[in-house]
Amino acid sequence: MKRFLSIIIAVLIMLPVMPGNTSSASVLKAGDDCIELIKRCEGFSRYKYWDYSQWTIGYGTYCQEDEYPGGITEAEADALLRKVLVEYESILQSFINKNNITLSQCQYDALVCYTYALGSVWTKYDEFDLKTILINGSDNYSFLEIAQAFGEWRCAGGKVLGGLVKRRHEETALFLSDRTESSSEVWRVTAEDGLNIRLTPSESGTVAGKMPLYTIFGVTEKRVSESGVWGKVNYNGVTGWCSLGYAKYMVGGPLEAEYDIPVNPVDSEVWKVTASGGLKLRSGPGLSYSQLGIISCGKTFTVTASANADGYTWGKTVFDGQSGWCALNFAELQSGTEPQTPVLKSIYISSQPDKKIYLEGEAPDMTGLEVKGRYSDGSEQIITDYEISALDTSPGTHSIKVTFEGMSAQFSVTIKPKSLAGIEIASMPDKTDYKTGELLDLTGLKVNAVYDNGAREEITGYTYNIDSPVSGMKTITVSYNGFEASFKIRVAPKTLCGIKVTAYPDKTSYALGDAFDPNGITVYAYYDNNSKLKIEDYIIEGYDPDKVGIQSITVRYSGYTDSFDISVTDGTPIYARGDVDGNGTVDIVDLIALKQYLDNELKLDTAAVRAADADGNGTVNQNDADIIAELIVEK
Amino acid sequence: MKIKLSAAIIACAAVISSFPAAAAESTIKLSAENCLVTQGEEVCVSFSVSSNKGFSGFSAEITYDPAILDFRSAKPGAMLSGASFYCTDTAPGKLSIVWADSKDRTISTKLISIYFDAVEDAGDMTSPVKISAIDMANSKHERCEVKADTPFVMVTEDVLTGDVDRNGSVGLTDLVRLCRYAADPSDCPLSNTAYANGDINEDGFVTGADCVQLLKTVSGGGV
């Protein structure tokens, strides 16, 4: 008997305590609320994106850079999430087992979501108030304290992110969803500049303190004044009132505000806004109460209380998280059931753009991009009027952010640097027809570099060469960074248009019988391209060593001639051709003398006769007079 | 209409005379008259010899403004007949002439006539016709001293007799202008065409006689 009792006692001692709706860690698993919360907070991304410090895909699941090149479906992302959550549940279970913590399902789901975001860090360090609260038992803490503990960790990249604030809000709401607290409400400051704490619930009340944006605070009492609904708060040791029009309700309560007119409870009536401009949501039942928001025309809302004031019937409702009153005169009673007014919860990239890889300089192409919004009723709708962040066009992988109504989703694209693929002759030079010997003129030539992205830009640092300088169709090859392009020019042969004796022979006076000495003569050929060339292969003719007098020596080359005079003497003086009087110049006196000689009125000596024989034919006649006249004219 | 002027005061161009106040007897003189020609028409500039002591040959250059005159031809005067005459346009606006014989020519008459066409758009433009680089010698092979005039060819636009102010009609303003010029040419210079238009009696001069004629026209008579 004693042994049996001992066994029973040992078994009883060994049996764990099992409360009604809580479980030990070994039994709890992430539920649908947890999965849905994570999906809602993370959003869905079909393709991986760079999330501050890691690649992320699907529902915020980490991945490697080379994983999922083709993206992921929602079903695959769901499976991946559930698989990955096992690791995070293990972290949570290890913590709660170690600290002998008992959690409800909603508390477990909220903490799995929290751990999926933060990892194991919050379970290790006392800086995390939530760790302390759980160890001490969350039932021992108010909604405010728990909400503030969840709301501690809302930064990423060193900045407070609205998305994280909202996520902590939802995790808090899930964690506290099986508890009630009517003695206070938990609110969060939404004013950018913070929310003043006044000593009285009035805009004229003395400011005693201030709560910054995103501060989570508790409201223990509510009052309604001419400026709206005020909540009594205690923050940093300051007790006072703040205007709840600049805050958002989180959990707890609700506390009723005091009004000075009868308020009748209503059994969940559904009304539909009929005013085309929407229906104002006021902080109280009356025209003097401040506006909290507007319920759009056609939207439905649920009325839980009514009151009459200022000639209108007012209905109390909660819209978009805010409790207020609407004038039911501008709405239509629908039914007694409570409809779900869909509220946008998140957006995600339902289809990535077709083009994910760009070459440097390409313009972004969002063809194929589809963005969807997830709503509170579970529906999804395609969003078209979203905004897209500018694309960083430098080489590398960059995130592109899609934003809609304060929510965002991302996808990434890769920019590859452009590389030179070739060069092309964009414009021929103005001059393409040349004569041999002309200098090449590339004025007007334009050369383009062609890149692998199809871009083209003019270049100037190219080099060029011509295949050969002789006449014909010639190819000019342009080179640049290892690439070549070419074009052709036509080079016509130059044409001879004359020759000239530019230097006479050293010897121009000969004695009878002397051989002709051409040394010293210089002859140039002239071409139609304004060039000249010294020539050697000319022919010299006209010299007669046996003929005394002035002789015209002809230089002949390719059908062109030039001439110069030499003299052959037998010892007698030699006058220049036409210089009959031998005075060294050919002038009118020489012509007169020749005329007189021809008319036998003047005798001429041998030298004079030779000079008078201008054509050198051995006879002095009128023809010689004509030549001398020409010499006078040409002088 | 072609109007020939004797050595008269020209409105727009100074006359450069090469005649010294008292030439030496051995100096041969070449004289020529100024010419007035309508644009597009032919004009002849003739050089005549005076104080000729005899020469057997000469060479010279004749220059003119090729923008105003187109050279057509050159003809030796009768005094040069019987011997070869050479005339070559060696450059735009430049002629070279050569003539020689065995005996001296002693008469004083026309030496050479040069024919030009006045360029079509050369109205109211004036070109000198200068003879220079004159080399003249006699049968004894002695050089002759030569002095030559430089005549001017004045080209006019189409002439309208009496239209001194060139407004296309003949009236009182033309008479006033003509009288002012006749009284003092420097007070109211006239272009070539205005001068030609003002030579009412076509005597080559613009004088009071032309004013009287124009007065008759303006006051009712015809030209």
The DSSP helix count of chain A reads 10
End-to-end separation of chain A:
165 Å
Mean pLDDT of chain A: 86
The largest interface is: A-B, 22 and 20 residues
The CATH topology of one domain in chain A turns out to be Lysozyme
Helix content of chain B: 10-25%
Low-confidence stretches of chain B: 1-24
The whole-number mean of residue pLDDT values of chain B reads 84
According to CATH, what is the class of the largest domain in chain B?
A: Mainly Beta
The number of E-state strands of chain B comes to: 13
Strand order of the largest sheet of chain B: 6-9-4-2-12-11-5-8-7
And the CATH topology of the largest domain in chain B?
A: Immunoglobulin-like
Number of domains of chain B: 2
From the alpha carbons, calculate the radius of gyration of chain B and give it in angstroms. Answer: 20 Å
List the helices and strands and how they pair.
The complex is a heterodimer of chains A (635) and B (223).
Chain A: H1 2-14, E1 22-23, H2 32-42, E2 45-50, E3 55-58, E4 61-63, H3 74-98, E5 103-104, H4 105-118, H5 129-136, H6 143-150, E6 155-156, E7 159-160, H7 162-175, E8 185-189, E9 195-198, E10 207-211, E11 216-219, E12 221-225, E13 228-235, E14 238-243, E15 247-252, E16 264-273, E17 279-282, E18 291-295, E19 300-309, E20 312-319, E21 322-327, E22 331-335, E23 344-351, E24 357-359, E25 370-375, E26 380-383, E27 387-388, E28 396-404, E29 407-416, E30 420-427, E31 433-435, E32 446-451, E33 456-459, E34 463-466, E35 472-480, E36 483-492, E37 496-503, E38 509-511, E39 522-527, E40 532-535, E41 539-541, E42 549-557, E43 560-569, H8 588-598, H9 606-612, H10 622-634
Parallel strand pairs in A: 24-29, 31-36, 38-43
Antiparallel strand pairs in A: 1-5, 2-3, 3-4, 6-7, 8-11, 8-15, 9-10, 12-13, 13-14, 16-19, 16-22, 17-18, 19-20, 20-21, 23-25, 25-26, 27-28, 28-29, 30-32, 32-33, 34-35, 35-36, 37-39, 39-40, 41-42, 42-43
Helix pairs in contact in A: 2-4, 3-4, 4-7, 8-10
Chain B: E1 3-4, E2 27-31, E3 35-38, E4 42-50, E5 55-63, E6 69-76, E7 85-91, E8 94-105, E9 110-118, E10 126-128, E11 130-137, E12 143-148, E13 152-156, H1 172-183, H2 192-198, H3 208-218
Helix pairs in contact in B: 1-3
